[in-house]
Specification:
The structure is a homodimer of 318-residue chains. With 318 residues, chain A is of the alpha/beta class. Helix content of chain A is 48%, strand content 15%. The first copy, chain A, contains 15 helices and 10 strands. In chain A, the strands form 2 sheets. In chain A, strands 1-2-10-7-8-9 form a 6-stranded mixed β-sheet, with helices on both faces. The first copy, chain A, has a 4-stranded parallel β-sheet with strand order 5-4-3-6, with helices on both faces.
Chain lengths: 318, 318
């Protein structure tokens, strides 16, 4: 069932011992460039370096004891893999993580660091799902989907909950959108706790399936061509159902605009964020007229980027 | 006169409206690597991106009104230049900043952004001092020396004051040392407010003049060969007098060790620091036995680094 006000409050109480309350940062210089007042919610400082720690933990904590004891399973090339492995470690159970064989060494090390067992497969959705189902059949582990899961959505909704508690009277919150877990959670939080705030999704041009889905009214397949490697999946049914009614608009940004926004955040806020986390600021800077004079919450979704890769991007789009 | 307990308390009260109380960060992963408990004082989030905002402001606020009205002057290629320009802007007076003609575009823009007037000169100490004295003779502006000035030292001392207020029972504080303003200020704060804490200076091997000065008992000239470009000056008489009696030890680190520590902080803490700010962690990691099991305060002095330059360093010392 779509998370309600009480569901989100309960999720927050449940995961609070296991997550960071991340800080809000501001920059007068960036505000001046943007023509509005920006409040950056720094989930790059979250456990595992991204908001994904919230949703995975909320889902894992709600498994019935017998189911829980069989472990957790998921397929992910990114932050959700570490989030599930960490949740399992905290609960003292096993985790089985299917990762594409082209996933980065750094991310594999993250999963192994939390005691996760990695299963490599070919880098396509079919191979990932088949490998995962094989493991689940064998172990009885519980699948934790990265976004198409209401417990996960309720967990991600707690990011915006902290944001609106710390910053009053936001006119808009801009969240990145990939599979839609964070965006749909943000939209629900705003609906229940700050209904005058508008929610906007920020998406890479090269993976603009959410933008197209909003136009067509049905889930469109994702293109997969963007530097924002955390946002390449298409929406799920559960996330799209929430997004299509609760989100005002999806705005896209080019890779060049995303890297420029990422550079600005590294240089001015002195913090490290991953490309996907830069999309909301990129969207604000390219659509200034829409945000002029407003109080804008920006969700910096994560900070897991290889320094070599970041440097390549800065160099390429200099 | 060497700052006393009351002087540092007064300095803190005086500058508080104009500076940030910067956060303390921790990382379980880095603690594990270091074998001790580290508390990072994040002056990279300070106004102008470095602790220098404190000392310059404290000195500027203590000028007699008539002297103050004639403006501020200094020579600096780095963070102190921006700190003086910012102090002048806040006070509504002029600032005259002598910068070497090889100083970075980014740093010049910083000074101009605060309304400072820049005078370029040849990149050597004699040209810098001559240019500065010419300006002072003409304008009557007050020189604010970057470190050999007791008001500046008392201002920099407030970094450690906040650190020991936020983190109880530190066994050691490790501070970078260039001209010695931050290190001598840290040593005074510890002497007055936390006398059981030890203070250690962290210096690049390629500019180990403070290390050699401690051996010889007199101020040794600085070598100027290190990636830690904020730490290339030699000590001043005022800073050395404090350091030689109040600092337990100076430890040096190589450029390779400095860049490795910088990378670790970017990757694990998800924050941007400049090479000079990485020297204390480099020193702890290379001398683990000295810090084993201790509670260690690490002063991250600043975050002003060109991304292109940082990427070059990461690549060179990979």
């Amino acid at each position: 069932m779509i998370p309600e006000k009480k569901t989100i409050e309960a999720a927050y109480g449940r995961i609070q011992p296991y997550i960071q309350r991340t800080p809000i940062m501001t920059s007068a210089g960036v505000d001046e460039m943007a023509g509005c007042k920006l409040f950056f919610k720094c989930e790059n400082f979250q456990k595992i370096g991204a908001f994904k720690a919230r949703g995975a933990m909320n889902a894992a904590l709600q498994l019935p004891p017998q189911q829980r004891s069989k472990g957790l399973a998921t397929h992910s090339s990114g932050n959700h893999a570490q989030a599930v492995a960490r949740a399992a470690k905290i609960l003292g159970i096993k985790s089985y993580i299917v990762m594409p064989n082209n996933s980065s060494e750094m991310k594999r090390r993250g999963v192994l660091g939390y005691g996760g067992e990695i299963f490599l497969c070919e880098p396509n959705l079919r191979a990932r799902e088949e490998t995962l189902h094989g493991i689940i059949n064998k172990t009885g582990a519980a699948e934790i989907h990265p976004f198409n899961n209401y417990e996960v959505i309720a967990g991600q909704a707690t990011v915006a909950k902290e944001l609106i508690e710390d910053v009053r009277d936001l006119d808009v919150i801009v969240s990145p959108v990939g599979g839609g877990g964070l965006l749909s959670g943000t939209a629900l939080t705003v609906k229940f706790f700050s209904p005058t705030t508008k929610v906007i999704g920020a998406e890479p041009e090269g993976a603009d399936d959410a933008f197209r889905s909003m136009q067509s009214g049905k889930i469109e397949p994702a293109a997969v061509n963007s530097v924002a490697d955390g946002l390449l999946t298409s929406l799920g049914e559960k996330t799209f159902n929430i997004i299509k009614t609760e989100v005002a608009e999806i705005i896209t940004a080019s890779d060049k605009e995303i890297v420029a926004a990422m550079r600005l955040i590294w240089e001015r806020l002195k913090i490290v964020i991953e490309p996907s986390a830069a999309v909301p600021l990129a969207v604000v800077l390219k659509s200034k007229e829409k945000f002029f004079g407003a109080r804008v919450g920006i969700i910096l979704s994560g900070g897991n980027v290889d320094l070599e890769k970041a440097c390549e991007l800065f160099n390429k789009y200099r």
